[in-house]
Specification:
- The protein is mainly alpha-helical.
- Among the domains are: 154 residues, no CATH class; 72 residues, no CATH class.
- It is built from 18 helices and 8 strands.
- A 3-stranded antiparallel sheet has the order 1-2-3, with no helix packed on it. Strands 7-6-8 form a 3-stranded antiparallel sheet, sandwiched between helices.
- Strand 1 and strand 2 form a beta hairpin.
- Helix 8 runs parallel beside helix 10, helix 9 runs parallel beside helix 11 and helix 10 runs antiparallel to helix 17.
- The longest helix has 34 residues.
- It starts with a helix and ends in a 19-residue tail after the last helix.
- It comes from Actinomadura spongiicola.
- Pfam families: FTSW_RODA_SPOVE.
- This is FtsW/RodA/SpoVE family cell cycle protein.
- It is a multi-pass membrane protein.
- It is found in: Membrane.
Length: 528
């Protein structure tokens, strides 16, 4: 009886699908250029100059990436590159739209007496990081080779990483520890997940997640047989043996450490969810999922009891009841939330003293804990304003939401593209994940199966965490929306992720080597 992987490989089209990939890439660029054109026409009444600079620059980079893929991975999945280019292009168009320094929107809004938040949307910088990200995609495709071609200089295959499982795991741990190193670590918006290198800020956790996928895949390939054994059966669940709980407990304590030291709920949730999902893929035991959910809930509960985890507790409080914290709220020891927004006298008092944060200073005087839900609530208002079809690109006011170009770019797009546009974006993400999972099932090697499955799931989980946070489904976290949010770390890491999937899909989809002669036939050699 054939396995699922054998059945999928039997149905895979072993012919090259490069024409389909090229047609989809053209469609992705038409979508991007149309977005730039609509932004300019709606915002300033004319085709923007950015259509040539940004749209043309992205087109050149995308087609360079396509021809590299055509040359070195001709059997790669035809959807992965066009889908990633479409997301990157739409994100670049929205950031260009939010870059108010290039727009008449600022003058119109100021003339109307509207409040203009200090924004940091930077379209030229995002185009530069797009260039770097696609450059890393090209480099990764060139360096990674077919699993049966290991003789090329300065090259390795995805399978090669299995030999360095623990070294890669140690490297991931070192990357995660960098933000807490004095002198280079930086705390931004309450979370310590950044490092400063020269004039740039880098989020090492974005690269650590890929290394952790390799480490988890290599570890679980060796241990999956033991972790698949059944200990006790409780109802319909087959629980693992007590001795096999060690690895998941180690990862649980590790994620708690990340949560405590970096005060970042999103990163801890991402890493722990990644390990539990890969553990389920390796063992196919549902009991591990329930154990993981239980440990996750216990970890969040423990975090809420610790006094130095105020930032995480604020996020949970705002998620449960955001209205009292709008524009600034102060949680007193009695449990009462007192407003310290710009309309209150105590706020005006510290504002007159030129305090850096009048609301936080006022709350400190009251002896409470300060939090502000304006970011979350304004994002929800933006989604409500967009409705089903949206206001249209360039016709809304997404810049009124704090961090509309990074953490809340999903809400910004929801205001101008509506629920319909958001569903299309989520469908693109779902297609990337589906193609990655299909690659995982079709892979012939157990390590590559886990590697491709883990890479796909880490993308899916990151999208769920950030989208769930900005829509108030779960507490808000500091993760970025892949390919859409402004920032170089996320863009570079996610383009490397796409390169890994492209290489592994090529290996899974290419035809197996044919034997020189049929087995069983006897070759007669004459000695005369």
């Amino acid at each position: 009886m054939q396995s699922i992987g054998d059945q999928i490989r039997a149905r895979l089209p072993y012919q090259r699908r490069n024409a389909a990939s090229f047609a989809l890439l053209i469609f992705a660029m038409v979508l991007t250029l149309s977005a730039f054109a609509e932004v300019g026409l709606a915002r300033d009444g004319m085709i923007p100059g950015g259509l040539v600079v940004y749209g043309g620059g992205l087109a050149v980079l995308a087609f360079i990436a396509y021809f590299v893929q055509l040359r070195f991975t001709p059997y790669a999945d035809p959807l992965l590159l066009p889908l990633a280019v479409a997301l990157n292009g739409l994100g670049l168009a929205m950031i260009y739209r939010l870059d108010l320094d290039t727009s008449a929107d600022r003058k119109i809004a100021l003339a109307a007496g509207k409040e203009i938040l200090k924004d940091a949307a930077d379209a030229p910088n995002q185009l530069m990081w797009t260039f770097v990200g696609i450059g890393l995609f090209v480099a990764a495709v060139l360096i990674m080779r077919d699993t049966d071609k290991t003789d090329a200089p300065l090259s390795f295959t995805p399978k090669t990483a299995q030999r360095y499982t623990y070294l890669i795991g140690l490297s991931a741990l070192m990357l995660l520890m960098l933000p807490i190193v004095p002198g280079i670590g930086a705390e931004i918006n309450g979370a310590r997940v950044w490092i400063r290198v020269g004039g740039f800020s880098v989020q090492p956790g974005e690269f650590a997640k890929l290394l952790l996928v390799v480490f988890f895949a290599g570890y679980l390939v060796n241990k999956r047989q033991a972790m698949s054994l059944i200990g006790k059966k409780v109802g319909p669940l087959s629980l693992p043996r007590a001795r096999d709980l060690g690895p998941i407990m180690v990862i649980w304590f590790f994620c708690l450490g990340v949560l405590f030291m970096q005060k970042d709920l999103g990163t801890a949730l991402l890493f722990f969810g990644l390990f539990v999902s890969m553990l389920y893929i390796a063992t196919q035991r549902v009991s591990w999922v329930f154990i993981g959910i239980g440990l996750l809930a216990m970890g969040v509960f423990v975090a809420t009891l610790l006094p130095f985890m105020g930032h995480v507790n604020q996020r949970i409080d705002i998620w449960q009841n955001p209205k009292p914290y709008f524009d600034g709220g102060c949680l007193l020891e009695s449990g009462k939330v007192v407003p310290v927004n710009p309309n209150t006298e105590i706020y005006k008092k510290f504002d007159a003293q030129d305090a850096i944060s009048p609301g936080a200073s006022a709350c400190a005087e009251l002896g409470g804990t300060y939090a502000d839900s304006a970011q979350l609530m304004k994002g929800l208002y933006a989604l409500g304003q967009g409705g089903v079809l949206g206001t249209g690109l360039g016709q809304g006011e997404p810049w009124r939401t704090p961090l509309s170009f990074s953490d809340f770019i999903f809400d910004s797009m929801g205001e101008e593209l509506g629920l319909t546009g958001l569903m299309a974006l989520l469908l693109i993400y779902a297609l990337i994940v589906q193609r990655g999972m299909k690659t995982a099932v079709a892979a012939r090697d157990p390590f590559l199966k886990l590697f491709a499955g883990g890479v796909s799931f880490v993308l899916a989980l990151q999208v769920f965490v950030i989208v769930g946070g900005v829509t108030k489904l779960i507490p808000l976290t500091g993760l970025t929306t892949p390919f859409l949010s402004q920032g170089g770390s996320s863009l570079m890491a996610n383009w490397i992720l796409i390169a890994i999937l492209v290489r592994m899909s090529h290996d899974a989809r290419k035809p197996a080597p044919q034997a020189i002669q049929d087995e069983g036939m006897t070759q007669i050699v004459s000695t005369r």
